[in-house]
Automatic annotation (TrEMBL):
Transmembrane segments: 44-62, 74-94, 100-122
Keywords, alphabetical: Membrane, Transmembrane, Transmembrane helix
Protein name in the entry: DUF4345 domain-containing protein
UniProt keyword Transmembrane present: yes
Length: 130
């Protein structure tokens, strides 16, 4: 199992790249998900860059955290975010509202969510309560 630092650093790099692509080249994700390139679609893709940028900053800043309630919350947020994206992508694929290129995204999102599951079990090294 990779360390929390390795997992957080990897995902920070991935989410930073996603943020840059969605912000600077929004036509690429629209094409990848077989969506129409409209002004509305470009705007929403650019808006989608900001949560990815926020995740990148949070994960990079927290990469050295010891096991704690805050680190557990970060892990839960990552699992919900990427698990939710995978579920949403699968639903869109089944309904036919997105293209086959959604499959690799779903696979990566599931792996990224699963990468943080083992870190939920890490215990805090805080002194025991009396």
């Amino acid at each position: 199992m990779p360390t929390f630092k390795a997992s957080a650093t990897l995902l920070a790099a991935i989410t930073l790249c996603l943020a840059l692509v969605y912000l600077l080249l929004p036509s690429i994700p629209l094409f990848a998900f077989a969506q129409e390139r409209t002004a509305d679609g470009l705007f929403m893709a650019r808006r989608g860059a900001l949560p990815f940028a926020g995740l990148a900053v949070m994960l990079f800043a927290a990469r050295d955290c010891d096991p704690s309630h805050a680190r557990r919350a970060i892990c839960l947020a990552v699992i919900v975010t990427f698990g939710g994206l995978a579920i949403l992508g699968l639903i869109a694929l089944v309904r036919g509202t997105t293209g086959w290129m959604t499959l690799p995204s779903i696979a990566v999102e599931l792996v990224l969510a699963a990468l943080f599951v083992p870190h939920l079990a890490a215990r805090s090294r805080a002194a025991p309560r009396l």
